[in-house]
Design a protein that fits this description.
- The chain is α/β, with parallel strands linked by helices.
- It has two domains: about 10-105 and about 215-305, Rossmann fold, CATH 3.40.50; about 115-210, Putative methyltransferase TM0872, insert domain (DNA polymerase, domain 1, Orthogonal Bundle).
- About 40% of the residues lie in helices and about 15% in strands.
- The protein has helices at about 10-15, 35-45, 55-65, 80-90, 105-110, 135-140, 145-155, 160-175, 180-190, 200-210, 215-230, 240-255, 285-290, and strands spanning about 25-30, 50-55, 70-75, 95-100, 230-240, 275-285, 300-305.
- It has a seven-stranded mixed beta sheet with strand order 3-2-1-4-5-7-6, sandwiched between helices.
- Strand 2, helix 3 and strand 3 (about 70-75) form a beta-alpha-beta unit.
- Helix 7 packs across helix 10 (about 200-210).
- The longest helix is centred in the C-terminal third of the chain and has 15 residues, at about 215-230.
- It is globular.
- Residues about 1-5 and about 260-270 have low confidence and may be disordered.
């Protein structure tokens, strides 16, 4: 096992939050470069298992080259396929913990050829899985300004979304929009620069989320965890912006609310009064971690635990 790996965001708190059992079965839903995965493996005994998902083939190739551990099973797939994969393996209801580290990994951001960065020029791609779907450039070429504006506003919460969409379509009249710096410059011509945030941050975020259907996959996968997790198992989710965190918060709140019934009334299993999760709270990166890794400044870790039986 290689020890040469980057320290993942909120590493200690997320690994601690999983409450790892020696012989447990765990899922790393976003392998990336294996920081969290190695942390989980280091806590597991010989009989423990880790199943890691990643839709980015470069992450799978990295794991195959750098990690040699028979307890690790790699799945080249989006985490939204979790239920299907685990069902085929007979593991539904047997997983002791799931860790989801959302967003883009540092290697993806650092590689200009992936199209995620507004700081380095590269093809305007933005696909997590480059073997599927259309690139950001292809979508921007075929979408009209209303659709572009709606995406930028909904997924980036960018107030100047309509102005940005107009500028994009105006640019495309004479020149194909094909690179990251082209898009970054277009946005910068419309959005005022801020001290700590690039003007194109929200736009790039929005288009990336849309191209990869990230919020839809997140919502679907959270629902799947209810079938996947064993009693008392933990769910740890690290999000990096308010839209993701809101989805996670609402999911936990939905299934951790307890319906109060008057004393003396018979219990009727109507599927509503069941409390399927316990909300174990949220935490943030420490000031020391934020100083060492700027990406952690917006990170929020939420932890929930699967209940053993319905509560009423």
């Amino acid at each position: 096992m290689s020890s040469n790996h980057h320290q993942s965001v909120m590493f200690e708190k997320s690994i601690e939050g999983l409450n790892i059992k020696n012989d447990g079965i765990y899922i790393d839903a976003t392998f990336g470069r294996g920081g969290h995965a190695l942390g989980i493996l280091n806590k597991l005994g010989e009989q423990g298992q880790l199943i890691a998902f990643d839709q980015d083939i470069s992450a799978i190739e990295y794991a195959n080259q750098h990690i040699n551990d028979t307890r690790l099973t790699l799945i080249h797939s989006a985490f939204a396929d979790m239920h299907q994969v685990l069902s085929e393996q007979g593991l539904l209801g047997k997983i002791d913990g799931i860790l989801m580290d959302l967003g883009v990994s540092s290697p993806q951001l650092d590689n200009a050829q992936r199209g995620f960065s507004f700081n380095a020029d590269g093809p305007l791609d933005m696909r997590m899985n480059q073997t599927r779907g259309i690139s950001a450039a292809q979508w921007l070429a075929q979408a009209d300004k209303v659709e572009i504006a709606n995406v930028i506003y909904a997924f980036g919460e960018e107030r100047k979304s309509r102005h940005i969409a107009n500028a994009i379509k105006k640019f495309q009249v004479d020149t194909p929009l094909e690179t990251t710096l082209q898009l970054a410059n277009i946005v910068s011509s419309v959005v005022r620069s801020q001290k700590k945030k690039h003007p194109a941050t929200r736009t790039f975020q929005a288009i990336r989320i849309f191209i990869n259907q990230e919020l839809k996959q997140l919502s679907e996968t959270l629902e799947q965890t209810l079938d996947v997790l064993a009693p008392e198992a933990r769910l740890c989710v690290i999000s990096f912006h308010s839209i993701e965190d809101r989805i996670v918060k609402q999911f936990v709140r939905k299934y951790s609310k307890q319906k109060q019934l008057p004393k003396g009334l018979p219990i009727i299993d109507d599927g509503i009064q069941q409390t399927l999760l316990r909300d174990l709270g949220k935490s943030f990166a420490s000031s020391e971690e934020i100083s060492a890794n700027r990406r952690s400044r917006s990170a929020i870790l939420r932890i929930a635990q699967r209940t053993t039986k319905p509560n009423v």
